[in-house]
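Fold this sequence, please.
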Amino acid sequence: MMYRIRLWAAAMVAHTNITISIDCIGGGDMPPGVEVENNNDDDDIGMLAKWRISLLQQAHQPNITVNLARLHDIIPRPPLHAIETNNPLPLPARLPLRDFCTKYNLSDEIFSKLDAVKITGPHTLHFYKEADLMDTVMLTLGELGSVLDAAEQWTWGLD
């Protein structure tokens, strides 16, 4: 019976109705698409291999063509006015460092550290990375937070 199942599976893989030589000893129904005639070999690997090769030779992949010529019609572009409105807000008027520190309640120690590296006011802070302010200016994490908070308030015009 196992032999019949193997043959049926090979026939199904080959997608074809085939005639297989099997001995009908023991009776029983064959799977659909297989005709029973005579059996000579229980382990005919060659026959299974031949069917597999036949299947591979018959199988062909369809050619797939992707046309990207009209891609711009599918993907919408943002309108130009939307791009123009995303510009950052203009910075407020320059404020000297001493006035900035006083207005936003930054300590004299923070003022001294910023002044020592010649930072002239909040209008220049956005040019520096946080790591620069901590490593070069030697601000502590808490001082950095206070400076960034004050600079953000200054940028948005908050007092």
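Residues 21-27 have pLDDT under 50 and may be disordered. DSSP finds eight helices and two strands in the chain.
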